[in-house]
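We now fix the convention by which a protein and its fold are recorded. The integers have meaning only within a learned vocabulary of local backbone shapes. A record is reproduced here so that you can trace the correspondence yourselves:
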Amino acid sequence: MEALMDGLLSNVDWSEIGLASWDTLIMVGMSLLFSVLIGLPIGVLLFLTGKRQLLEQPAAYAVLSFVVNVLRSVPFIILLIVMIPFTVMLIGTSLGVAGAIPPLVAGGAPFFARLVETSLREVDRGIIEATQAMGASVKQIVFGALLPEALPGIIAGITVTAITLVSYAAMSGVIGGGGLGDLAIRFGYQRFQTDVMVITVALLVVFVQVLQMLGDRLVLHFSRK
């Protein structure tokens, strides 16, 4: 059996697979962290400045919404290429794990911001009105009522964003971004090593399944709270 597996996976270098998997985890983890840190306040601002909301500002909402929509509408493969000069200026390189993180954040943050806005819109307006009646400030309403009530939806949004970033991270291999995507392109596609391609795809599927399971459990846990 072992000999059969060695024959079927003759091109697979497991140490390289392990390193590529670790690089993918770093890319997804770091880009998810920055996407949440940037996207959460943007999503809150989108909600607050929207129509009939606490800080209704049509002009501010229109500008912010336009920027978010522009970043979301650009296909990620194009975003990777367009951002190369900015990435080089910011990081010093557009290659490897570090070079992939800025475009991943640029793709993930606006996506997450919209999910946050949607989650906040689903909060019962009666809760907002009740906290307003008690004399709470906008800051108190946001941190004391809106975010806690929307937490399950926000966690679900983080899960969806993380899964999206897994696919984006794999796509970054096109420009030498490192990780499993780079391995799949360099060996699986360019060298026609089907066994390497199969392993990388299987690992990406495992990553997505694990992220979805963890996200679902967290949503269920906080929904019960």
Observations:
- Confidence is low (pLDDT under 50) at residues 1-6.
- DSSP finds ten helices and no strands in the chain.
- The domain at 16-224 is CATH 1.10.3720.10 (MetI-like fold).
